[in-house]
């Protein structure tokens, strides 16, 4: 190594110098230094304690791919790439390698979780008539599930958005995009009951359809608490959320044969790909559809 500190450097030596720089110059936390130290040790276990300038992008990429395949989460993969990337930028500045071989590498994207749908019998449990649940809450549940509303859309409804005669609901969705959705018969009946009670108790100047005990607009947090309580009362899944009801609405319609584009309109999705992500069929039904639709799949008698 020359007097300017440039020249050959082993991976283990470079990693030690980099961690020291993180601690002394960049004042990184003890947790960060410890995590990066483990990550760099793992990388060295993959490539060996070789010279920094002999490591290429393929080795880094293979290390990330093997780790991800073995169960690393996207967040873990991103952190480990960050540790190695920091090392190579440090080494490039020090002259221990010609280029940062991590340039252009990206961590894997987080896996998108499919929303969970309730079985139809569980939605029936939630919507079954019960003296313990108020008319407001029953109407709210029926509207959220029956119309596939986001919780923010449900609490944002005003009385002039409801046309019980036509059985329609005007909804203001994301991006202030307006859509009109049909109201199922059960929801119409429950809304009528709620409407009568609301007219007798609400301040005429309050336009919100669903009110809290103080006469103001109901909050999304209150809806979440109400739904959890309702699930506990009926024996339904207590992890059910307002979004679960929305996804159940879409999944049940799809299972009933409703066209995906029609469901897209009802949900207020700008892209059909978003609707496809929200709706999935179980393998048994897919097999049944395939057997019925594909002539070569039918067994010969």
Quick structural overview:
With 301 residues, the chain is mainly α. It has helices at residues 11-24, 30-47, 57-69, 74-94, 120-127, 135-147, 151-155, 185-201, 220-234, 242-255, 260-267, 272-278, 283-293; strands spanning 162-163, 168-172, 178-182.
Could you explain how this protein is built, in words?
By secondary structure, the chain is mainly α. It folds into two domains: 11-94, DNA polymerase, domain 1, CATH 1.10.150; 120-290, hpI Integrase, Chain A (Orthogonal Bundle). It is built from 13 helices and three strands. The chain has a three-stranded antiparallel beta sheet with strand order 1-2-3, with no helix packed on it. The termini are far apart.
Features:
301 residues, mainly alpha, DNA polymerase, domain 1, hpI Integrase, Chain A, 2 domains, 3-stranded antiparallel sheet, 13 helices, 3 strands, elongated, disordered C terminus
